[in-house]
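Structure, all two chains, one model.
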Amino acid sequence: MGQKLRRFFILILLLLLFLAPAQSTSFPHFSLDFFRELFQWESAREVFDLDEKEAIEVFGAWENEVFV
Amino acid sequence: MKKDLSFLLYLIPFLLLFRSASPKETALFFLSALLHELGHLGTIYALGYKTERFFLSPAGAGIGLDTVLIPYRKEIFIYLSGPFLNVLSATGALFLIRNRPSPTLFYFFFCNVFLCLINLLPICGLDGYQTLFSLISMIGNPEMAERILIPLSRATLVILTCFGLALFFSSKGASLLIFCLMLFWEQERKKATNIS
């Protein structure tokens, strides 16, 4: 059973490696998206104590929100 | 002599997670992971123990000690020191971001927070699980710890996977799902090791 499961995990990972777009499995890309999902623009700016220009430089733009 | 190269398979998930990342982003993640391991290592040496080997597992890196006879209280210190060093690094990065904002520092901050939080989860193979195991064993006994923690570990992993699926379907990427797969793999590996 263990061997079969191991093969299954490897197969899924290999499928992702060859079929999934690189950006969809990218950890750096995920970090920013996940952070944006969790925090609102204002609270993120407050946590890091950034003005609007600095915040755009660090986080980019939030979805569905216009800053510039 | 036949060498076991199965650990090379553990590199596939990392290849997936960092194939489109810049060398700097990859280096920052591994620096955060290295700081985590250095936290464990520093405490091991500070408590007067010696390391025997370093190894890779589906859940990341591991450190083998030259003894298995460690008091539970000291074990807890060793397990928590990795996430603690990540908290220190994240706090340092936060301080630097406030003075000199940069996407690089933010990413380093995120890596450390992520590694700390993921490692504190009560999932088999992670520091959170091992800490709780030592804590319950100290209060009760190891059998009791196993009875409580094995179902808790499975439930937590299922919840984390659901969260990973939700993020995946809201097009936030498959990274968390890949981490979940690595943790499932680690659970199976541990189960196989215990049986054999």
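Chain B is about 70% helix and 5% strand.
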